[in-house]
Amino acid sequence: MNLLLDEIARATARLADAGAASPRADAEELAAAVHRVRRSELHGVPDSAFDARFWEFVARREAGEPLQHITGRAFFRYLELKVGPGVFVPRPETEVMVGWALETLRDMDVRDPLVVDLGTGSAAIALSIALEAPRARVHAVEKDPTAFVHATRNVEELDERGRVRLHLDDFAAALTELDGTVDLVVSNPPYIPMSEWEYVPRDVRDHDPADALWGGGDDGLDAIRVVERTARRLLRPGGYAAVEHSDLQGNGVYWVFAEEHGWRDVRNRRDLANRDRFVTARLAAD
């Protein structure tokens, strides 16, 4: 049997005992990162090339360190992003919201749509939109300096056409020069209530930056309320907003985008697991 595949099997058992949600996939991803191959190529690594650092990576994952912090990379839609301590690791759930944003941009009768990503983190959302909607111009705002470094690295490496502009700023006051001109505002802000601290997985609460997790207020929606006010300021009449939330907050976020504030067509939308995941709304055109 191939030595590396044998060691991956042993690592899978260890990670399962440690409570990893996807022990086999984690073991394979760690092995691929150490040996600089794709997961599909692991069977081709010769015994002589086995790198014992694999077991160092396994021990770190066993101790609860996020897989993406160990490998230094995260996959999001068509992107491979650089991530690490100090930046939120993008999740598959957010890909569904980006898919909606791309469909909305395609349906707009706008030659070069203007998009704002509030709280960009690794720049996953901003870069996906810039890659998949080639005529879009994207402004990405991040207030945390450490996360901004990660975003900058990803934009410099992946934004070959220069369609993404990064801004180190608090998004409550950012981009006032764009007020009333933006076609789409999208955001995955912090939204977890502190009352749910004990229910958040250890590798998330211990390693993702606190400012990217805890939304503020008893309901965790304070940051989303800021997004709503900022989106209302930035959007042109008829422009759209999309904001991610937890699967238990759909009703609360729906009412944040109130009709008396000028919002229309407010809808809760579901992720691939058929759970409420993000709210979309259109700013009134009249």
TrEMBL record:
Q: What class of enzyme is it?
A: transferase
Protein name as catalogued: Release factor glutamine methyltransferase
| Binding site residues for substrate | 188-191
Q: Which GO terms describe its molecular function?
A: nucleic acid binding; peptide chain release factor N(5)-glutamine methyltransferase activity
Q: Does the keyword RNA-binding apply?
A: no
One Pfam family assigned to this protein is MTS
| Organism (species) | Actinomadura coerulea
Q: What is its EC number?
A: 2.1.1.297
For this protein, what reaction is catalysed? L-glutaminyl-[peptide chain release factor] + S-adenosyl-L-methionine = N(5)-methyl-L-glutaminyl-[peptide chain release factor] + S-adenosyl-L-homocysteine + H(+)
Q: Has UniProt tagged this entry with the keyword Magnesium?
A: no
* Entry's Gene Ontology BP terms: methylation
Listed binding positions for S-adenosyl-L-methionine are: 142, 171, 188
Q: Where is the Release factor glutamine methyltransferase N-terminal domain?
A: 9-72
Methyltransferase small domain: which residues? 111-191
Tell me the protein family, please: Belongs to the protein N5-glutamine methyltransferase family. PrmC subfamily.
